[in-house]
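DM from R.C. (forwarded with permission)

"hey, sorry to bug you on a friday — could you get me a structure for this? deadline for the figure draft is monday and I only need the backbone to look sensible"
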Amino acid sequence: MQRSAPWLLVYSRFLLTVPAVYMGYAHYTGWKYILLLLVAAATDYYDGVLARKMGIETATLRQADSIADTVFFLGVFAGIWLAYPNVIYGYAPGIFAVVTLEALRYVYDLLKFKRGASYHALSAKAFGVSLLVATIAIMGFGTAYPYLPVALFIGVCSGLEGLCMSIVLPVWTYNVRHLGVAINLRNRDER
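My reply, with the result:
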């Protein structure tokens, strides 16, 4: 049972997607939504910590973690749209850029590797943290500026780096910290 804890934390983020949408629909914002976001962030942090500590970190777990993150934040996006549609419309170009890059990379990864990437790059972690801060500001305090523009900028940079890593890497690889590591892996494979 203990060894399944990382998986339970990943699955819990899938489940937290439902209240993320519903709370936006019902306008349950403020501290309630902040609490939901912090619980989700804790599950995201500790699934990896526990997996590494137990020695059970696998490519499958890391990929499920990435999918859970994406699904949860799509739920949060829907919650924001329902509670604060003016935020979505006001920042539509940046949101569109981030979503387009994510979708483009996912399609590219499926075509090239037959599955989605799971790099967990430093830029993706920075994007996740900045997105968490922006979401707390929006759903907790009703303000998007300056947090959301910063998160969207980091998201575009992260998306571009992820796409470049997918282009550079010859085979599917997980836990690639940054583009430099991807280039080194490609160069090593070419020798």
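R.C.: lifesaver. The chain is about 80% helix and 0% strand.
me: no worries. The CA atoms of residues 20 and 164 lie 32 Å apart.
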